[in-house]
Amino acid sequence: MRLFRFVAATALLLFVAPHVHASDISPSDTIIVTATRTEIPLEQATVPVRVITRDDIELSLATDLAELLRFEAGIDIGRNGGPGQATSFFMRGTESNHTLVLIDGVRMNPGTIGGAAIQHISPEVIERVEIVKGARSALFGTDAIGGVINIITRRADETHIEGGAGAGSFDSRSAFLSGGVRNEENQFGITLDWQDTEGYPPRVESDVDRGYDNLSLNIHAARDIGSGEISLRHWRAEGTVEYLDFFLTPVDQDFRNAVTAFQFDKQLSERGTNKLIVSHMMDRIEQNQSDDFVESDRLSLDWQHTLAFSEHTVTAGLFAMKENAKTLSFGSGFDEDTDVRALFLQDQWISDRHRAFVAARLTDHDSFGNQTTYNVEYGYELTPSWTVRAGLGRAFRAPDATDRYGFGGNPDLEPEIANEYQLGLRYAPGSRHSVDIEFYANDIEDLIEFDFATFTLVNIDTAEIRGTQLGYEYLGDTFSLRADLVRQKAENTSNDTRLLRRAEESITLSYTQDVGQHRLGLSVLASGDREDFGGVTLPGYVVASLTGQVRLSKTLQLNARVENLFDADYQTAANFRMQGRSAFVELKYRRP
Fold first, then answer.
1. Distance (Å, whole) CA 205 – CA 116
2. Residue 517 in 3-state DSSP?
3. Residue-wise over 362-392: b if at least 16 C-beta within 10 A, else e?
4. Which residues pair with 363 in a beta bridge?
5. Nearest CA to 45 among 425, 379, 354, 392?
6. Are strands 99-103 and 147-153 parallel, antiparallel or unpaired?
7. Nearest alpha carbon to residue 297 among 287, 278, 284
């Protein structure tokens, strides 16, 4: 409680502290918000950050967020078959529930089954994606052990209307409509996206096709009020997933995911700003062949106050969350409430060739007591071309309700605690070339794993993750190239076994080429083998995606994609089939 009072008093003092300038932001800078909870140029981040832009999203013709992420270095995707099927992802060797997924800064990881449902997030509603690699529990609380993925939804930056329709393999169909209006004080935007596919057999032991449909909605409205802005955002996805159960019986379930947020931004003084977000998250799955269901509801309040000094930017804030998780499965289930409160304080320091970031957070979890997390990071510009950065962080993940009370659950589980270390070196001799090398280590205590001897979840002693990523990027006048090589080891040190579904080696390559008003894109992933349940070793594979945009007129554009160009036969989860060579085309209309 003393730390609570100290941080609260510090936050109060910030209101009356002198207000002076922080570092200036150039209009040409790429601005990010996830690495520090405040707007900074990408070049000032003291941790690795990758930004997927709207141009990247449109060229990819991806059908969901998982397809966008699978060509990103350091992220392993495990998918139980085709579109809409359960999807897990592993960032920097951590578990699938160790990455926090945000929508416009609001947590969407459910309180029941860990990982966020990224397979239901349509790229049409996304403006950009910010991927922060490394522990960030000091900023965002539980789950942010491996990193944070923040999905920034589309805004009405200008008055426009656009729409499109497409079709492709597996009897897939899609359509979307997006529009927005904006004036000096108000903005309103809406995006609707519909996807439907007959799919293909998700299990290798069956030839039964299983389909998927998803209707997504994103609404954003904002109004300037004096020196502040109020905004309301609502994202929603709902539909049906068809799949095969353990006995290969065709079954299906309905899903609904939604995040609603009210945000108030206020410029209190020339250098002091306030941000308040009140949000509600809902995640629900209903089985159509029975009364079984899984549901999470979360109401959150997130407030922060930021003050900019000549060399420091200080942020203090409060977080409160009330969550309900309930489920019914084969006649039994649970209904659990969870309350979480937190205080955080952080400082960004920039002086000449130095930059640093320090953050601390005290989380009061009603089931696991107080948890203290932190980040300490430092970057130094050795020369105009060479930059070095280093950091350490402490993060945690509280077991969710399913971990404790679901099938195989264990009420005596302890939180997972991670201690992470990073070291990076960047060489950028100008605006075109850049080379990055990153070293990372993460020691996770009390890692939660399933014990097949007792059929319960247990805490194991320690998991050790060691990795290196080498990346090169070139930005030309008409083309761009990015290549990354990742080598890592993720092991359960209690029995010297590999953690499941992580590749120890991977290479990703992305190439885009402008041809007049048209564009071509090629993405390639070469992944090493990985271990899976039951002692199965999944062999490595190479998969490629070829995309193109053809400008037909000022308002019309034809988009096309060939998925799995080399028709590779591969699996990312044992006995679940990934799609073979397939094609998709879309006709798009846009009027400014």
1. 28
2. coil
3. bbbbebbeebebbbbbbbebeeeeebebbbb
4. 342, 371
5. 379
6. parallel
7. 284
Q: Is the pLDDT of residue 4 over 60?
A: no
Residue type at 386 in one-letter notation: W
Could you give the count of Cα atoms lying within 13 Å of 93 in the half-sphere of its Cβ?
28
Could you read off the pLDDT of 502-525 as tens digits, one per residue? 999 999 999 999 999 999 999 999
77-97 mean pLDDT = 92
**How far is CA 391 from each of CA 244, 388, 422, 441, rounded to the nearest angstrom?**
45, 11, 5, 11
CA atoms lying within 13 Å on the CB side of residue 4: 9
> Going along 210-308, which residue ranges are E strands?
210-225, 228-244, 250-267, 272-287, 293-308
Give 13-60 pLDDT, tens digit per residue.
Answer: 333 333 333 444 555 579 999 999 999 999 999 999 999 999 999 999
Cα–Cα separations (whole angstroms), residue 539 to 3, 347, 568, 571, 573: 50, 45, 12, 8, 11
User: Would strands 210-225 and 186-200 be described as parallel, antiparallel, or unpaired?
Assistant: antiparallel
Listed residue (245, 252, 324, 321) closest to 283, CA to CA: 324
Confidence of residue 112 (pLDDT cuts 50, 70, 90): confident
Q: Please compute Rg for the chain using Cα positions.
A: 23
Question: Burial code of 81-113, b = ≥16 C-beta within 10 A, e = fewer?
Answer: bbbbbbbbbbbbbbbbbbbbbbbbbbbbbbbbb
Average pLDDT of the chain is 92
pLDDT of 530 higher than 50 = yes
Query: Amino acid identity, residue 97?
Result: N
- Please give the structure tokens belonging to residue 397: 């993940």
Rounded to whole angstroms, the Cα distance separating 125 from 396 reads: 30
DSSP 8-state class, residue 13: H
Of 147-161, 168-182, 247-261, the range with the lowest mean pLDDT is 147-161
CATH topology for 2-591 is Maltoporin; Chain A (2.40.170)
Taking CA atoms, 249 is separated from 161, 289, 546, 590, in Å, by 44, 11, 35, 44
> In the block, which residue shows the tokens 């594979």?
541
Q: Scan for tokens 């039964």, then name that residue.
A: 208
Residues in a beta bridge with 587: 165, 558
Spatial separation of the C-alpha atoms in residues 118 and 149, rounded to whole Å:
10
Q: What is the pLDDT of residue 453?
A: 83
Give Cα 141 to chain centroid, integer Å: 15
The residues with which 442 forms a beta bridge, in sequence order, are: 420, 465
For tokens 């800078």, what's the residue?
29
Q: Using alpha carbons, select from 123, 141, 102 the residue that is nearest to residue 281.
A: 102
- For the chain, the distance separating the N- and C-terminal CA atoms, rounded to the nearest angstrom, is 54
Is this prediction's pTM over 0.70?
yes
In the chain, what are the domain boundaries? 2-591
> 160-181 burial by CB neighbour count: b if 16+ within 10 A, else e?
eebbbebebbbebbbbbbbbbe
Rounded average pLDDT over 448-462: 87
Helices (H) and strands (E) in the chain, counts: 5, 36
SS3 204: coil
As a whole number of angstroms, the distance between CA 301 and CA 161 comes to 33
Angle at 16 between CA 15 and CA 20, to 5 degrees: 90
Closest C-alpha among 67, 57, 65 to residue 579: 67
- Cβ proximity of 77 and 135 under 8 Å: no
